[in-house]
Amino acid sequence: MIYLTRRYRFSASHRLHRDALSEEENARLYGKCNSPYGHGHNYVLEVTLAGPVDPATGMLCDLSQLDATVDREVIQRFDHTHLNLDVENFRSRVPTTENLCVEIFRLLETKVPGGDGVRLERVRLEETSSNYFEYEGEHAGALSRRRV
Ligand code: NI
Questions:
Q1: Fewer CB under 10 Å: which end of the chain, C or N?
Q2: Which residues lie at CB < 5 A from ion ligand 1?
Q3: Where exactly are the structural domains of the chain?
Q4: Is 3.40.30.10 the CATH classification of the domain at 2-147?
């Protein structure tokens, strides 16, 4: 078993706000992240795959295929968007970086390239230089998340 992590970058804006809450409750819950016109982040995304080394190629997977998948599923979808307004993914969910991290995992989970036994191990999403989130799927640590 070997692990491959590839780093990507995209920029997007968001506003942390729930329509179900009052203005005061939103302001209390989200602070300046509730600012009406939103604010931006330069997200750093790390995608980690796990699997065996393919004896025919000596590689876990073809990096250009991974790049194409992440570009199609994540970068083109989210880069230079306002997450609340521009993408379907956050019509009914607050686009916190926690939710964005989980959403990116779901978008990639069944689409990662590679041969038998290669799986998406983890998505790590850095919002600022001070904090990041990691998601390993709902069955993290279980055999059931292995691709067959
Ligand atoms: Ni923010």
A1: C
A2: 33
A3: 2-147
A4: no
